[in-house]
Design brief:
Strand order of the largest sheet: 2-1-4-5-6-7-3
Structural class: alpha+beta
Order of helices and strands: HEEHEEEEEHHEEHEEEEEEEE
Distance between the termini: 47 Å
Mean pLDDT: 81
Radius of gyration: 24 Å
């Protein structure tokens, strides 16, 4: 709200102006911003996964995360749009969005975004269908209410997102198990995941492999120790030369088999029959692998 200037008025003029300003203040407090957008001085979802003290970022910026669940920002930064202009453009896109009627019933988001602007931050789940001219988002704290972005905002956001690259170095820093041209980084994180599964403890891991063009392919595993089930997300939507696939399956067992090439891991029991093997999860750790350590 703009600072109101104080003028020296007397008697009736002062009273009239005071009443008018009070009425305007009450009216503005009782209405939503354009498109139902809202500010937040705290990270939506109750946790701040992106703030770094003393880093090289500007004060205003936007962090992008892979969307994997509802109600919180996914851990690990996919990329950063580091400028005040970017943060202002995203903030404007949210403000110009149109509130969708009814309750939301959608698949997991494509991305999460955290917008840092003027000392405040706002977190959203974001859907960007390649075949649609209008994207959609929800606030982290209200996943049942959706907002439709304008065509202009959607095009601008898609262009900005297309410039982001999930690099090998970023994947390693995020704690992914990374495969690139015979090189494996963070192998110990996979071993820790397997050990936790054997102990029947909840565990999760992200495996990132790179095509020869340098595009990432993601395999995310979550082990639910109570349900004794593995949730597997397979995502090739960042592979510019391949067919975009984003799938989720639930499997009963993680199978390890020693072969001539190395140790091979597969998921079994991925349908009604226990013998049904996952068609999208297959990991080989060669015996002669080059191991990259942080």
């Amino acid at each position: 709200m703009e600072t109101l200037r104080t003028f020296k008025l007397t008697n009736r003029k002062l009273v009239s102006l005071g009443l008018l300003l009070m009425a305007l203040l009450l009216a503005s407090c009782g209405s939503d911003k354009a498109g139902g957008a809202k500010d937040s001085s705290e990270t939506e979802g109750g946790e701040n996964t992106s703030v770094m003290v003393g880093d090289s970022r500007s004060q205003d910026y936007v962090t992008i995360h892979r969307g994997q669940t509802f109600g919180k920002v996914s851990s690990g930064i996919y990329g950063t749009l580091d400028s005040a202009e970017e943060a202002e453009a995203w903030d404007q896109a949210l403000r110009e969005a149109i509130k969708r009627p009814g309750e939301m019933d959608v698949r997991e988001p494509d991305y999460d975004a955290v917008i840092y602007l003027d000392g405040k931050n706002t977190s959203i789940h974001l859907w960007l269908d390649p075949d649609s001219k209008r994207g959609m988002f929800t606030y982290i704290t209200d996943t049942g209410t959706g907002y439709t972005l304008t065509e202009k905002s959607t095009a601008q956001i898609k262009e900005r997102m297309g410039q982001l690259r999930y690099t090998f170095e970023q994947a390693v820093d995020n704690g992914d198990v990374v495969f690139r041209l015979g090189e494996i980084a963070n192998r110990e994180i996979w071993d820790e995941f397997v050990m936790e599964v054997k102990k029947k403890n909840p565990a999760s891991v992200q495996l990132t492999s790179y095509t020869k063009e340098g595009d990432p392919i993601f395999n995310d595993l979550e082990y639910d120790h109570q349900g004794k089930v593995f949730k597997h997300r397979f995502d090739t939507t960042r592979d510019t030369m391949g067919m975009p696939i984003k799938s989720v399956e639930f499997c009963k067992t993680l199978v390890a088999e020693e072969t001539e090439q190395g140790i091979e891991y597969r998921l079994n029991g991925c349908s009604e029959g226990d013998a049904q093997e996952s068609e999208t999860f297959h990991v080989l750790f060669p015996f002669d692998q080059t191991v990259h350590n942080n």
